[in-house]
Specification:
Radius of gyration: 31 Å
Shape: elongated
CATH superfamily of the largest domain: Leucine-rich Repeat Variant
Largest sheet: none
Length: about 400
């Protein structure tokens, strides 16, 4: 069974109730006599898969034979690939993938069965069995391709996941992205978001850019947030995304706005990439959500060439009501090493001397130290910090003073 299958809630409840019944029944069996041995279970399953008229019984027989992994089960299972019920054929494929030692004998018959299979879910299961048995990709890729257009979401998902790394990202991205933020996608053991990010990052296929931009504009909230993130995974991030990402900073969803700021920051890390996204990031410093302001404030620390226009806005952000935002504003000012950073020295000195938050003071001292001699006006505040009761504050003050007034 594929690890990403999902079961409806009603099914889970029924299974739980069935488990209680089985426990009670099991107790009765134990009271009446010994339970079946593995050999007895195997013999019963071998008989059932060959002779039973009930497909449910044949399904359980296939599952039992897969669990027991007895070598003599291989031939009956291969014969059961021609079972008239596609549900049985699916379970038979699941069972066959357990017999890795018998792969040379299984793969030819299973490949032929997959080619002849007319039921897409069964064919996809056969593809997964071939993949697990380490068959050549040309034996299982066609089985997955058929499943990409199936109306059943689970079949589409299993087919798309099976093709990741073996088919163009343009083939696997659409069905996986369509699952994001849906009840089906939320019920998977591995969320489609992580798979989509892997597809984008590993393929670095720039043909995905229009699809991501469309998802950023028209998708559901989870899709919009993922599209904003994924655009930043491309190397280099696409400059044509700057305007749409800027527009996304007006999105009603916090996650979308936060993801947009992250990707605009990555664009700023590229040579000459900062100016295009700077106005949008500076606007995000006024976002009503502290988390968005926090990400925006730290953006300028990692930019290739942070613009001077950001300095006064970051200075103003040092007075933000949220301590984490103030700390990130000081962190952001660490990106400015040249003389223009001098205008931030008074605000950083005040933050170091008077801010009630420890991390704000630490980041302010670090920013001053990185500025070097241009931060000479901060020396009195930093020297006072040498007598602070907090050992960490004393340490960062001393480190800053060593770069501002290096000993000769």
């Amino acid at each position: 069974m594929r690890p990403w299958r999902v079961l409806p809630r009603a099914t889970l409840v029924l299974l739980a109730l069935a488990g209680v019944v089985l426990v009670v029944a099991g107790c009765a069996v134990l009271g009446d006599g010994p339970s079946e041995t593995p050999r007895q279970r195997a013999d019963r399953a071998l008989g059932d898969i060959r002779e039973s008229k009930d497909p449910e019984v044949r399904i359980r027989a296939a599952e039992t034979l897969g669990d027991l992994k007895l070598p003599e089960a291989v031939d009956p299972l291969l014969q059961a690939l021609r079972d008239p019920d596609p549900r049985v054929r699916r379970r038979v494929a699941d069972a066959l993938e357990q017999f890795e030692d018998a792969a040379p004998a299984i793969v030819p018959s299973l490949t032929a069965a997959a080619v002849a299979e007319t039921n897409a879910p069964a064919r996809v299961e056969m593809g997964w069995a071939l993949k697990k048995l380490k068959a050549a990709p040309d034996t299982w890729v066609p089985a997955f391709r058929v499943g990409l257009a199936d109306p059943d979401p689970l079949t589409r998902h299993n087919a798309a996941v099976g093709l990741v790394g073996q088919a163009p990202a343009l083939d696997t991205f659409p069905p996986l992205f369509a699952e994001v933020g849906t009840p089906f996608g939320r019920g998977l053991t591995e969320r489609p978001q992580s798979i989509v990010r892997r597809v984008v990052e590993q393929s670095n296929d720039r043909r995905l850019i229009p699809l991501l931009l469309d998802g950023l504009k028209t998708g559901n909230p989870s899709q919009r947030a993922l599209a904003a993130q994924a655009l930043g995974l491309l190397k280099p991030p696409p400059r044509e995304a700057i305007a749409p990402l800027g527009a996304a900073l007006r999105d009603p969803e916090v996650d979308v706005r936060t993801s947009a700021v992250y990707t605009l920051t990555r664009l700023g890390q590229q040579p000459n990439g900062g100016p295009g996204g700077t106005p949008a990031i500076l606007g995000a410093l006024k976002d009503p959500e502290p988390g968005v302001r926090k990400v925006a404030a730290s953006a300028f620390r990692s930019m290739e060439a942070p613009p001077r226009s950001a300095i006064p806005v970051l200075i103003d952000t040092l007075r933000d009501e949220n301590a984490e935002v103030r700390a990130e504003a000081a962190f952001g000012l660490m990106g400015f090493y040249s003389p223009p950073a001098r205008e931030a020295v008074p605000a950083l000195s005040a933050a170091f001397a008077r801010d009630p938050d420890r991390q704000v003071r630490i980041n302010a001292a670090r920013a001053l130290g990185l500025m070097g001699p241009v931060a000479r006006d901060a020396v009195p505040a930093l020297r006072t910090g040498l007598r602070d009761e907090d050992e960490r504050i004393r340490a960062v003050a001393a480190e800053a003073l060593q770069t501002i007034e290096p000993r000769r």
